[in-house]
Write a structure and sequence with these properties.
Number of strands: 8
Number of helices: 19
Keywords: Membrane, Transmembrane, Transmembrane helix
Structural class: alpha/beta
CATH topology of the largest domain: Alkaline Phosphatase, subunit A
Helix content: 40-55%
Transmembrane segments: 7-25, 37-58, 65-81, 93-113, 125-143
CATH superfamily of the largest domain: Alkaline Phosphatase, subunit A
CATH class of the largest domain: Alpha Beta
Radius of gyration: 26 Å
Pfam families: Sulfatase (PF00884)
Protein name: Sulfatase N-terminal domain-containing protein
CATH architecture of the largest domain: 3-Layer(aba) Sandwich
Organism: Niastella populi
Strand order of the largest sheet: 2-7-6-1-5-4
Strand content: 5-15%
Distance between the termini: 51 Å
Amino acid sequence: MLSKLQQYSLYLFLLPVFFVLHGYLENYGFISPGELAILAITYLACTLILAVICWLFFRNMHKAALAAFVIMAYYFFFGVLRDFLKKHFPAVAGYSVLLSAFFILLIVFTIYLKKSNRSFKPLTGFLNILFLIYLLIDTGNLLSKTFRSGVVRDLSVYSFAKDNTYTPCDTCSRPDIYFILMDGYASTAALAQYYNFHNDLDSFLLQKKFSIQTNSRSNYNFTPFSMASILNMSYLNGIKNTKAVTVNDYANCEVLIRNNEVIKMLGAAGYDIVNYSIFNLAGHPSLIKQSFLPLNTRLITERTLFAHVRKDIGWKLATWYPFKWFWSFDVMQANRNNQRLIELIKTHPAVKSTKPRFVYAHLNMPHSPFYYDKNGKLKDVATITRENLSFPISSYLEYLTYANSRIREMVTSIQQQNPSAVIILMGDHGNRDITNEAFPIRHFQNLNAVYYPDNDYKMLYDSVSGVNQFRVVLNKLLQQKLPVLKDSSIYLIDRDDSHPAN
């Protein structure tokens, strides 16, 4: 048996299987088996291609496998290595050191393998046994979790569903509801106070008979947490004060958004759910294109070399071949999504339906990247990527001006084609500019405007926050008696990045 294990370099393909399985185990309940299979097949294919390239150079399977193994191991565990060095040896945790050192060591190792006359069979056997043991341990832990009853979430809003019942309203008119979320759109008051910017969107909205909640605030300053609270009409259990959030916290929020209370309640009231957002809703997947890999597998892929380089220094590669084309395609994806969703929102009201509809649209604007200037001119990729890192306020304000023009188009289209529709126009949080302040209140001051066809806004109040937005709206539209919660905001920081993209 041992001789067989020394004969074949199984460890090279056990490595990606272990990496994917271990990541799945650590994020159990967030990634589907289908998504896991796609990721595993992708990594196995990449490993096989690299092994073939190495074989063409060495003409020896054991040497080719070792070279490919070193490269793939560094790729998979780069994040773990860099996090360790950042904590204990920050002086050598920079990309210039890590990438240069690996490149030099790889050349030295390649020369050694090329000149060596060793068979490397004992090392092959050891690595095979090592990864088989790792896989057996993780398989046992996975089976244990599979047969365990239920998955405990760090964040939840279960008390809402437990303590509240939905009261059917047979006499309610049940108008169509358009919920248009503008990511990172600050309130007019914040724009004037902090950036000396006069926002002319208010005059348009008032002309269209909207009620503007000028002192509205979000409950959280990161998108997934804010949307989880808005759509569940509740604060998130597990977050009490300022918290350094992790990738698992983000994943928890996506679970809460997918199964949120608003769509459950509206579904029970007979509404069709139309999802034009960046999130999956239960039974209504997102139309947004993210990447060639399943969205939730980023819980695993975020640790890799590619993910770290893309996040931290990828913008620097925007003008380099062969990175230029890929980066250009990648950085422009959110703009393509925005343009598609805007057209869907503008044309949707003309579609006739026998049932009322709840349309949730989530546009990644005026949040960075700042694709357009104030005149609607698309910027070049180099400028977009540079501004995405430096976050100039002037670019944010110009992109906000462009966003205003698209808001006018959407609102006008909805009101002309579906005059009885309710429109909720919100920012998920304020402008999250770079700061060292302990509690930057402007990060929470968000756009909030509501249109009711009957212009009866007495239930709305000026300082409403996200957790109460749909409580107030549904109390009016469906004659519910949901209590209004105390409005407050909780400042979050990202564990790895003080200025995350969400």
